Amino acid sequence: MEKKIRVLIAKPGLDGHDRGALVIAQALRDYGMEVIYTGLRQTPEQIVAAAIQEDVDAIGLSCLSGAHNELFPAVTELLKTRGADDILVIGGGIIPAEDVPFLESKGIRKIFTPGTPTIEIARYIERAVYERDGIPLEQPIEVEAIDHIGIAVRSIADCLPFYQEKLGFSLERTETVEAQKVKVAFLKAGNFHLELLEPIGDDSPVARFIAQRGEGLHHVALEVRDIDGQLRRLETAGIPLVDHRARPGAGASRIAFLHPKAAHGVLYELCEKKAEH
Ligand code: ZN
Q1: Number of compact structural domains in the chain
Q2: Does the reported pTM lie above 0.90?
Q3: How much distance in Å is there from the Cα of 200 to the middle of ligand 1?
Q4: What's the mean per-residue pLDDT of the chain?
Q5: Which of 133, 156, 179 is the last residue in one of the domains?
Q6: Rounded to the nearest whole angstrom, what is the distance from the C-alpha of residue 105 to the centroid of ligand 1?
Q7: Separation of CA 269 and ligand 1 centre (Å)
Q8: pLDDT the model gives residue 276
Q9: Residue 248 CA to ligand 1 centre (angstroms)
């Protein structure tokens, strides 16, 4: 199982602006981390107590008031006292470059200055936590099953008799996925699914596929859990992706395609089904 990294974002001291902290918190969530935000004007004691209680991997401190040289080391000191200095501490905010070596000497792992891309912060935290825990960063993704095989057809209506009457598939549902400009029919036999894809409009990717290669096998959909985490693993491993972020697929699923050049000509879809309640 992929480790869910937990991060506490905290605003120590008196400054009353947390736009930046909220942006970071959201970016880390989008990256797949669990983020707890303490709110404004927290004391180092409150921050450390919350970090231990929430069992976080990392604390992100943000300070705009100029008091970082007191507040940040107070947090790392308290963590040490409480035996929780395996929690990584990073900092950001308005911090002059000349203060960075001092803060680093006090156990703040890294200071991010304004304008650092949020993805860089997320990757840094991920790397540092994985390193601390001895988890290799490059891991294969975890596939649960083949969810379905996608077949490009000119007309669903024309090929339904073959699938239903000759192969014994039953039609589960049809759906139009406007974003993909396709009409989709889900067929089922046993616990196996086929997805027939019929283009709506000449600018549909499936229309282009048929124009170039004719009707036939279009993609293989692999069922995964935590599609965001799996995509990140592939990204980390340098696998070319069509979709760097999951997007809505048929049946309230979330999907993403790998680039066929990543897979020797096969188009793979990752598919995370809607959680069943
Ligand atoms: Zn599909």
Answers
A1: 2
A2: no
A3: 16
A4: 92
A5: 133
A6: 52
A7: 6
A8: 59
A9: 11
- Does residue 193 share a domain with residue 116? no
Q: Is 220 helix (H, G, I), strand (E, B) or coil?
A: strand
Distance 34 CA to ligand 1 centre (A): 29
Q: Which domain holds residue 217?
A: 143-272
Asked whether 59 and 28 are in contact (CB, 8 A), the reply is no
- The answer as to whether 1 is a domain residue is no
For tokens 């880390």, what's the residue?
28
* 127, 155: one domain: no
Ligand 1 centre distance from Cα of residue 152 (Å):
10
Query: What CA–CA distance (Å, rounded) separates 106 from 96?
Result: 16
Six token digits for residue 107: 């156990």
CA–CA–CA angle 186, 190, 192 (5° rounding) = 50
Distance (angstroms) between ligand 1 centre and the Cα of 242 equals: 14
CA of 53 to the centre of ligand 1 (A): 42
Q: For residue 117, how far is its CA from the centre of ligand 1 (angstroms)?
A: 33
pLDDT of residue 277 exceeding 60, the answer is no
Mean pLDDT value of segment 109-134: 91
